Amino acid sequence: MNTFVEWGALGNIVLFGLIIGAGLPTLYALGVRALDTSSRAVGHNVTLLKVGAYACFGVVAAIILGALAFIALGGH
Amino acid sequence: MTETALLALVVVTALVFDFTNGFHDTGNAMAPSIATRALKPKQAVLLAAILNMVGAFLSLTVAATIATGIVDSGVVTLGVVLAGLAGGIIWNLVTWLVRLPSSSSHALVGGVVGAVLAAAGTQGVIWSGLVSKVLLPALLAPIIAIAVAGVGTWLVTRVTGSIAQKHNDRSFRFGQIGSASLMALAHGTNDAQKTMGIILLALIAAGKVAPDAGVPSWVIVSCAVAMALGTYTGGWRVIRTLGKGLVKLDSRQGLSADMSSASVILLSSHFGYSLSTTHVATGSILGTGIGRKGASVGWSVARKMFVAWLITVPAAAAVGGLCYGIGELFGAGAGPWVVFGILVATSAVIFALARRQPVHADNVNDEWEAKGDEESILAQAVSMHNPRLMRVRKPPRKRKRKAPHPPKKVKKKSKTQQAKKHAKKGSGAGSGSGKKKNKAKSGKSKSKSKSKSGGKSKSKKKSKAG
């Protein structure tokens, strides 16, 4: 069976798939939550939350753009 | 026929395949965003077309594996490639007609394998390559995608559970546009290469390029354009199944699905382990249904889809083999043209069939379980003398538990029974007069009106009959 399935490649796909494919939406969701005014408890630092939210969105965008650049520049 | 003309015919057919690939697979990238209304249907396909084209230029790893790993390139002639492409195109169109998202790459591989089998027998196919590069990834791809999308959706819905749905929708639609774009790009990098691989195979077979040559740039450009055109045409039938038939998606699920598909496809492309875009995209959409509490998954649609996946390779192989046989029958001169003619004729028939129940940008988002207005159902039932059409889906009320009488029974009896029933129910004068009108109708329509529960349909019936 080992010759039929490239377990190494497959393992990498699953691992990075979970990190990126499930991680980025979660990060995005955290950003959305930080920006949400209705569910925010009183006493939170609004500026801090906003900065955190945009940091989340920024990281998501940066990872996507970085990955694209990596593929485009022949990283395969 | 001269070798060059044949080569040209093959290249044109390959580009046609690329076109069908594009429009069959638009849904993979865009179905979630269209279903959640993050993008308007027309905008979505335009965006997908542009990004598909860009994606086609990004990476070239898979092209090599398709061309060399699965069939023995020594036995591949142009006739084989042509028959294989015909098999792939026809199977793509058939699955499009029946609205099932099936893998275009599997159709292509199946077609080529079938043609090689017909041409050179079993030793022409590299079976281990077929199993390890095509069949096993086909099984693994949806599993991986379901896992990734399921985990993603679970996390996202947990994080955003306390937020108002309206706010969520707005924010996540915005993110969806980004993730869907990424997915379209991923599709371009992965799928345009398959056609490039086939054209490369044809060029090698014709001796125009060396067996270890890279992909010429005109091939890359024409493949990118053909796929973009196909994508823009929009395979609305498949988009509808993916976006509406599998899982009722909200925008959070849409984002998770796209992100999961895009990352799995780009990663598989990166590691040189080609996974079918369709299988990954479908798996992701299913995964979002599994990962979110209370989401409903259309398992019957999913089951049909899995069956289609199973038979894609053998079915396309059968068509490909058949085309090769027919081509051989007519000899080297006319054969390829006959095959091409069959392809064109079959495509025309399929398009004509598809026009009977068209799906387009305007109705792609309609509810999956078409309710249909009562009036038209009634009219149809009357005109076709088919009472079953009017059967109500809701569980019958208590009094109605008795099964309707088969139409064979004596009319007199069933009429009186019905009258009794109505009297018992006390459904008023309306039903009585309706019944009288019904007498003019056959016994069949009698039992039909009984199975319909309310007095509403009665009065409608009255107006119909009168």
What would you note in describing this structure?
The complex is a heterodimer of chains A (76) and B (466). Chain A has 2 helices and no strands. By secondary structure, chain A is mainly alpha-helical. Chain A has helices at residues 7-35, 46-72. In chain A, helix 1 (7-35) runs antiparallel to helix 2. Helices cover 74% and strands 0% of the residues of chain A. Chain A has a domain at 24-72. With 466 residues, chain B is mainly α. Chain B folds into 2 domains: 3-354, no CATH class; 374-465, no CATH class. Helices cover 74% and strands 0% of the residues of chain B. The A-B interface holds A 3-6, 9-10, 12-14, 16-18, 20-26, 28-30, 32-33, 35-36, 38-39, 60-61, 64, 67-68, 71-72, 74-76 and B 58-59, 61, 128, 131-132, 136, 140, 144, 147-149, 151-153, 155-156, 159-160, 162-164, 167-168, 171-172, 175, 178-179, 182, 185, 189, 252, 255-256, 259-264, 266-273, 275.
In short:
The complex is a heterodimer of chains A (76) and B (466). Chain A has 76 residues and is mostly helical.
Q: Largest interface, by Cβ-Cβ below 8 angstroms: which chains and how many residues each? A: A-B, 38 and 50 residues
Q: Structural class of the secondary elements of chain A?
A: mainly alpha
Oligomer state of the chains in this structure = heterodimer
Helix/strand class of chain B: mainly alpha
**If helices are DSSP runs of H or I spanning 4 or more residues, what is the number of helices of chain A?**
2
First and last CA, distance of chain A: 25 Å
Overall geometry of chain A = elongated
Radius of gyration of chain A: 18 Å
C-alpha Rg of chain B (nearest Å): 27 Å
Could you tell me the number of beta strands of chain A? 0
The percent range for helix content of chain B is: over 70%
Write the element-wise H/E pattern of chain A from the N-terminal end onward: HH
Q: Domains counted in the coordinates of chain B: how many?
A: 2
Which series of helices and strands of chain B comes N to C? Answer: HHHHHHHHHHHHHHHHHH
User: Residue ranges of chain B: pLDDT <50 for 5 or more in a row?
Assistant: 409-416, 424-466
Q: Can you count the beta strands of chain B? A: 0
- Beta-strand level of the residues of chain B, as a percent range? under 5%
Distance between the termini of chain B: 70 Å
Largest sheet report of chain B: none
Q: Round the mean pLDDT of chain B to the nearest integer and report it.
A: 77
